[in-house]
Amino acid sequence: MQQHSLQLKKYLEDIRNRSRNFIGYPGAVDFNYSELYPFLEFGLNNVGDPFMESHCDMHTKEFEREVLGFFAELFNAPQKNWWGYVTNGGSEGNLYALYLARELYPNGMVYYSETTHYSVQKNIQLLGMQSIVIRSKDNGEMDYDDLKDTLQMHRHQPVIILANIGTTMTEAKDDVATIKQILKSFAIKNAYIHCDAALAGTYLALLNAGSFDFRFGADSIAISGHKFIGSPIPCGVVLVKKTNKDRIGRNIPYIGTFDTTITGSRNAITPLFLWYAISKLGKEGLMQRAQNGMAVAAYAVEQLNKIGVSAWQNKNALTVIFPQPSQQLCHKWQLASENGISHLICMPGVTKEHIDSFKMDFENDLLQPVKPLIERPSYLLN
Known about the structure:
Elements: H1 3-19, H2 61-74, E1 82-87, H3 90-104, E2 109-113, H4 118-127, E3 130-134, H5 144-153, E4 159-164, H6 176-185, E5 191-196, H7 201-206, E6 220-224, H8 226-230, E7 236-241, H9 242-245, E8 250-252, E9 257-259, H10 269-306, E10 319-323, H11 327-332, E11 336-338, E12 341-345, H12 352-366
Parallel strand pairs: 2-3, 2-4, 4-5, 5-6
Antiparallel strand pairs: 1-7, 6-7, 8-9, 10-12, 11-12
Helix pairs in contact: 2-10, 3-4, 5-6, 10-12
């Protein structure tokens, strides 16, 4: 066997082994897209606007539009006044929404909480926007009192608010209805609210939980597709109001379509993945997926509490938070950790059997003396 084949075979074995203990990061692990593998033989490209054909016919825009229609209905987007596209992930969705908000309000001030995803600060810097960080409560949700105080000092500027619908570490959700009421109390009319719903948006909407969609005052929503639905390639969806989007974009004659997205050439395989999962599972199947995840998360809290671990979760969350264990345990189970806490996320494919195995390791871990993740070789000890 040639060297490159041996290297790939070894890597495949390693990845299969590591995937068995993948509970610390938000990505479904139960998908199967083998029926779509033949499409990988072609160089597909969803260049330009998903709602416009182009001179390049090697695309999946018809499938992309069906995916967008599903999420527009799920998030109660205004009829005949929504637009969106399939992105490379939640970070691109956040970038697009902030870009749109900046074009609407060039002098706008962006407000986001201290538990906001790192992509937001990076995107703000890329766009050259002004911003203020708002305190977070202990559970990770935005501190609305601090938001009120801060808005009062800057009420002369248009307001752009980044609301978290599932923060990275604790899956806290900011309440858009409350934010909207605060804006109303200050008579602020020039305002834009974007919801970073990358983690929780899809299953919260399926369970009709939370107040964050277009009905409650959102101007745009971004979600990740590779998290709750699952995909071997990171992807996402961003939805905005069409009347806002129409203020940007320009015609590109040689591709025969409008340039209305962040990237020019766009992935045409991920819309096919999302369409396939949505079509195969249906809304009922996706709801069952959400309910199963909630049940596993509740089970994880219960089981960890039984062995003396102070585990907890926010309301309607698949994320279970607990004190950070040893480096060995964090490494084995690929746990995300920050400021002394770790979490596991009960994404589709994480089962009660995974929790039982993790609980057993955690219980043994509590009895072990602390040691480094990687032992130092003896020749380095002197």
